[in-house]
Amino acid sequence: MNKQELIAAIQTRSIHYKDSGVQKNSVEAVLDSLADVINGALVKRDEVALPGIGKFSAEERAARKGRNPATGAEIDIPAKVVPKFSAAKALKDTIAFS
Fold first, then answer.
1. Alpha-carbon span 63 to 44, nearest angstrom
2. Three-class SS of the chain
3. pLDDT in tens, 74-93
């Protein structure tokens, strides 16, 4: 599902919860804001929990040795910070039983 499909699905679903649906541009603004909030929190190394979905966090990876797959030569891989997502139990259960 791409962004436009997600926006359409949220808009369609919102009609079932309220008498009037949410406009597509409002849904898109909320999705963009959510991405900005999560990105900003991860830059500060904060965690962001979305109830029923999961938790986003930033994880530091230590420097390590690796191999160039083309040549087999050993290379140094520098330390870096990467995003991490942990799925909530509710999400795992939903997927497991579907």
1. 21
2. CCHHHHHHHHHHHHHHHCCCCCCHHHHHHHHHHHHHHHHHHHHCCCCEEECCCEEEEEEEECCEEEECCCCCCEEEECCEEEEEEEECHHHHHHHHCC
3. 999 999 999 999 999 999 99
What pLDDT digit, counting tens, does each position of 45-61 carry?
999 999 999 999 999 99
Which residues partner with 64 through β-bridges? Answer: 77
Q: Which of 54, 89, 44 is nearest to 36 (CA)?
A: 44
Residue 23: count other Cβ atoms within 10 Å of its Cβ: 11
Question: In one letter, which amino acid is 93?
Answer: D
